[in-house]
From TrEMBL:
It is a multi-pass membrane protein. Pfam families: MS_channel_2nd, MS_channel_3rd. Belongs to the MscS (TC 1.A.23) family. Keywords: Cell membrane, Membrane, Transmembrane, Transmembrane helix. Residues 109-174 form the Mechanosensitive ion channel MscS domain. This is Small-conductance mechanosensitive channel. It comes from the Bacteria. Residues 183-265 form the Mechanosensitive ion channel MscS C-terminal domain. The chain crosses the membrane at residues 21-41, 61-81, 88-110. It is found in: Cell membrane.
């Protein structure tokens, strides 16, 4: 009984004492124990839920779980302090102005976090997707709650705040499939054999090793231009990051084949007529 009274006296020792707040050693011990217990339970729950999930779904769940556990820790903090006899309403009232200020200061951060959760839940974006945003084409490397890491074709790392995906237009080239259609445009001189031009363009696409053979390339007669007959060669590939290289190789080959068949690629010309008013 005497030992119990001694422990009660020790745990009742005030560490912080004001007119409204009395934070004792016992409250500190209870708070530390509550945090350790909560951390253990959350870790066990996370491992239990994710043990059979695929790696991609597991990473998504962990991202959302990390966001939720902050709210759980705050709840545990308030509950433990309240159970230990600390008047938490005083603390909340005193910090209300700070919370409001932080809310305005961290408004962008909250938008990023909410956008990150929505991206993970609605499956609009995946690691490995090729996207186009603000005119830049890049491959998604990592999706976190606050931002998305992507790498451009020039191997430059882009850190994209997640709220951008809610406010800006995003083109996801690979959301439905990795296969995308591209085209190369070319003009030939008036009087050229259009059927021969079509055959050359299709052969160039069929002979390219990185253009998919299971999809037939097509040629469209686009327009009667000012100085040329305009054609477009359409083809399919399975890696959007290789588009610039494939287009360059196709243009080299098309130029060579046109030379071999005496098909000229014209340049813009203008006829200037000079009138002599004195004559």
């Amino acid at each position: 009984m005497e030992l119990f009274e001694q422990l009660k006296e020790i745990f009742g020792l005030s560490l912080i004492k004001t007119q409204d707040v009395n934070f004792t050693l016992g409250a500190l011990v209870a708070l530390v124990f509550a945090f350790f217990a909560t951390s253990f339970i959350l870790r066990f729950f996370r491992k239990f839920v994710t043990r059979k999930l695929p790696i991609e779904d597991r990473n998504k769940f962990i991202s959302i779980f990390q966001f939720l556990q902050y709210a759980i820790y705050i709840f545990v903090l308030m509950f433990t302090l309240k159970a230990s006899g600390v008047d938490v309403t005083v603390l909340l009232t005193a910090s209300a102005a700070i919370f409001i200020g932080l809310g305005f200061a961290l408004q962008q951060l909250f938008q990023d976090l909410i956008a990150g959760i929505l991206i993970i839940l609605d499956q609009t974006l995946h690691v490995g997707d090729i996207i186009e945003i603000e005119g830049k084409v890049c491959r998604v490397e990592k999706i976190s709650l606050r931002s998305t890491i992507a790498v451009t074709r020039n191997q430059r790392v882009m850190v994209i705040p997640n709220h951008k995906f809610l406010s800006d237009i995003l083109f996801n080239w690979t959301q439905k499939s990795n296969i995308i259609r591209e085209n190369v445009e070319v003009g030939v001189a008036y009087g050229s054999d259009t059927q021969l031009v079509k055959k050359i363009l299709i052969d160039c696409a069929k002979n390219h090793p990185r253009i998919l053979k299971e999809f037939e390339p097509t040629v469209m007669f686009e327009n009667f231009g000012d100085s040329s007959l305009d054609f477009a060669l359409y083809f399919f590939i399975d890696d959007g990051f290789t588009v610039p290289g494939i287009k360059s190789e196709l243009r080299f080959e098309i130029d060579q084949q046109f030379r071999n068949h005496n098909i000229s690629i014209p340049f813009p010309q203008r006829d200037v007529h000079i009138y002599n008013q004195n004559s």
